[in-house]
Amino acid sequence: MSKETKRPRWWLLFLIWGAAGSTAAYCTFYGENVGDKALLIRAGAIFLGLLASGFWLIFLSRLPWSRRLAGVALAVVCIAAFNLIYEPHFTGDLVPEFRLRHRAVETKIGQAGSAATPGANYHQFMGWDRLAVQPDLNLDPDWEQHPPTLVWRRPVGAAWSAFAVSNDLAVTQEQQDDQECVIAYRLQTGEEVWRWCYTASYASTLGGDGPRATPTIAGEHVYTMGSMGDLLCLALADGRLIWQKQVFEMMGTRPPEWGCSVSPLVLDEVVVASAGDGGNNALLAFNREDGGLAWHAAGDPTHYSSPSLMTLAGVSQIVVFTAHSVRGYQPQDGQPLWSYPWQAEAPVVAVPAQVGFDRLVVSAGYGMGAACIEVTQAEDGSWQINEQWRNIFLKSKFANMMFIEDSLYGLDEGILTCLATASGERRWKRGRMGHGQLLRAGRHLLVSTEKGEVVLLDPNPQAYRELGRFQAIQGKSWNPPALAGDLLLVRNAEEAACYRLALKAAPATASDTE
């Protein structure tokens, strides 16, 4: 064998990383052209580059075996050290990210100032009527001159739950070791007021650990649903247990694959909860006072989307996006009114958005897209469902959608998108937010991004108009925000924070100047 043939094949290593690097660079700088899977393609290119480099080193490099074995040993040591220092987290696109293990979160109290503005309540998941709207706030959009100010920041246990707020209490769910806990914090300071814990645990490398659903506050009680099917009623004042039901054991069902994320819906006399996976019921209703079973609603199981009380075609009804359909039920007894089939093997999470007197838009990620349906009632009392349009322009994986005038705003696989509700036509698509959440404050739109930023937008059907942004918390943030008056509460699986948003001063009146 000649000396020339024994030279190391460095050119092959350069070729491997030329291909992997150029693919990753293109997805980084021109991801909009690649499409919704740009981040996944970039991660795949880097992973394949590393895998091919290892194959090159052992089988194709022509390096001396001592150097090959030393390279393998060095790689093993580096991987072990990396694993000790960092832990993997996965984005909503299943792209791995690595963060320091046991990152310390410092409790910090900022300028608390006065109490929140009047109407400072956000009693449940997505707030009043589950619309994620605080209609009367007049935010000051100049965040350069009047940025959001920190009220407090503190560490919290793992969960994708949001806050429910009543007066001076902010209530959420957290994982604490092998227990799920309902914890109430003081709205003005972030200090813990009370907690109630029980043995339950959900853990997933891809999906994250802890409870998923948001508490619901009604009167003097708090209602919560744990990741494994524990439905609780607690006293709001001190966290004392009123009653508790293990719903899935009672029904012979099981939690969905990614844990139960269906937030309780409280009506006049009952609290409505998920019936679990594997049964013939979508929802169950329990008496608010004693937890007795009031009714059950037949249908395919709920997935991850929470029910809402809506008025469609003039009729009040519970609307829920289940595993294979969108359904309407009578609030009094859970009797089915109508259903619209939605065939999907992937999870459905987003709450349907009402976009008119008798129309709904439903959307799901994983390439499914969105559909607008018309729900009408005939003279004989029967219900008809007509599909108005369906397309792939809005694939809402986690986030709710926001209906404003004649437009619908949502996150199309992590990119903010505006659709015309009448036709489904896409008006614009811009702003990679990741799989975050939307909230409306007066005429402005707030987006909490997957990376913990909060973005202020002027919702305009003509163009994307960003007014400001700031880094609210660190780390993957799938939790919906809560807006109690001018106090914005954000959290993720590691930390929670409260910020005060600047408001525009009310214009002076003649009586004010006299």
End-to-end CA span: 104 Å
- Number of separate strands: 36
Count of alpha/pi helices:
6
Structural class: mainly beta
For the residues shown, what is the average pLDDT? Answer: 90
Whole-angstrom Rg: 25 Å
Tally of individual domains = 2
Low-confidence stretches: 508-514
Largest sheet: 5 strands, antiparallel
CATH homologous superfamily label of the largest domain: YVTN repeat-like/Quinoprotein amine dehydrogenase
> CATH topology of the largest domain, anyone?
Methylamine Dehydrogenase, Chain H
How do the strands of the widest beta sheet line up side by side? 3-5-36-35-34
Strand percentage: 35-45%
Q: Which outline best applies?
A: globular
| CATH level 1 class label of the largest domain | Mainly Beta
- What is the percent of helical residues? 10-25%
CATH architecture label of the largest domain: 7 Propeller
Keywords:
514 residues; mainly beta; Methylamine Dehydrogenase, Chain H; 2 domains; five-stranded mixed β-sheet; 6 helices; 15% helix
Task: Give the secondary structure arrangement, pairings included.
Layout: H1 10-29, H2 31-34, H3 38-60, H4 65-85, E1 86-90, E2 96-100, E3 108-109, E4 133-134, E5 149-155, E6 164-166, E7 169-176, E8 179-186, E9 192-199, E10 216-218, E11 221-225, E12 230-235, E13 241-246, H5 247-251, E14 265-266, E15 270-274, E16 281-287, E17 293-298, E18 308-312, E19 315-321, E20 325-329, E21 336-341, E22 353-354, E23 359-364, E24 369-377, E25 383-391, E26 402-404, E27 407-412, E28 415-420, E29 426-432, E30 437-441, E31 444-448, E32 453-457, E33 466-471, E34 482-484, E35 487-491, E36 495-500, H6 510-513
Parallel strand pairs: 4-30
Antiparallel strand pairs: 1-2, 3-5, 5-36, 6-7, 7-8, 8-9, 10-11, 11-12, 12-13, 14-15, 15-16, 16-17, 18-19, 19-20, 20-21, 22-23, 23-24, 24-25, 26-27, 27-28, 28-29, 30-31, 31-32, 32-33, 34-35, 35-36
